[in-house]
Amino acid sequence: MPTSALSEQGKSLLLRAAREIEVDLEPTLPRFEQFYRRLVEANATTNLTAIRDERGIVLKHFVDSLSCLKSGRLEGSLRVLDLGTGAGFPGLPLKLVRPELELTFLDATHKKIAFIESICRELNLSGTQCLWGRAETLGHDPAHREAYDRVVSRAVSALNTLSELCLPLVKVGGFMIAQKGAGVAEELEQARAAIHQLGGAVRDVVAFKLLGLEEPRALVVVEKTHPTPARYPRRAGVPAKNPLS
Ligand code: SAH
Predict the structure, then answer these.
(1) In this structure, are residues 62 and 93 in contact, taking their beta carbons and an 8 Å threshold?
(2) Residues 131, 133, 134, 136: what is their CA dihedral angle, to the nearest 10 degrees?
(3) Which is the most buried residue in 11, 66, 146, 192, by most CB within 10 A?
(4) 82, 94, 78, 104: which is closest to 166 by C-alpha?
(5) Is there an atom of ligand 1 within 6 Å of 156 CB?
(6) Is 20 within the bounds of a domain?
(7) What digits encode the pLDDT tens for the residues 128-143?
(8) 107 Cβ below 6 A of ligand 1
(9) Number of domains composing the chain
(10) Domain, as residue range, for 88
């Protein structure tokens, strides 16, 4: 039976790649190992993520998630929402290295949220909340609308659609941090008007490469400068089908 434990080689790759982005993983390595084991085991029976190889999980999931810290805007006791978290990315690795973050995980797929709930319980993570639902609905819920200091998101949708999902949930003065790849410049061009309409202003695009990965990475950092008009987000599915332009 194949082992679901992170190998010695995997551990050293994880430590090394994290060090490259100035994250010392040594103190929390056992928690990453536990998360790894549970992810591999759960993924064998439930389709949680298409990335299944050890190197892929270490670099594309764990280290890429941690690279959000390069935004320089995730320090302190912030209320953070991970929108469309899937199997916990980028939110879970961020919570493991920054336990003071208060993290809310949101996903539209029940089995993914159930998985994260079980991990949070097993790892005894306090200051976490798991929500099953759609951003278009949550964005109109007074308990969540404009309630987060930060909304982070990876691989959910193009920046124009994503802005409509994320920005209504960000407090005025807070930030949306979107993880993007090679197409960032084009996505940004197509999202400028939407970001403006939704009350945002692009503050930063942090471009970099990660150890062992060819694909360039970028963080788009958008500040919420004004309240989002009440009509946004539009109803479920519309932001993707008919992005603001
Ligand atoms: N962020 C993770 C998962 C990306 S897959 C990662 O990078 O690995 C995209 C996820 O977003 C899916 O799990 C899907 O269920 C969720 N999702 C897509 N649209 C959503 C919406 N409108 N509201 C909430 N979750 C959504």
Answers:
(1) yes
(2) -80
(3) 66
(4) 82
(5) yes
(6) no
(7) 999 999 999 999 999 9
(8) yes
(9) 1
(10) 70-241
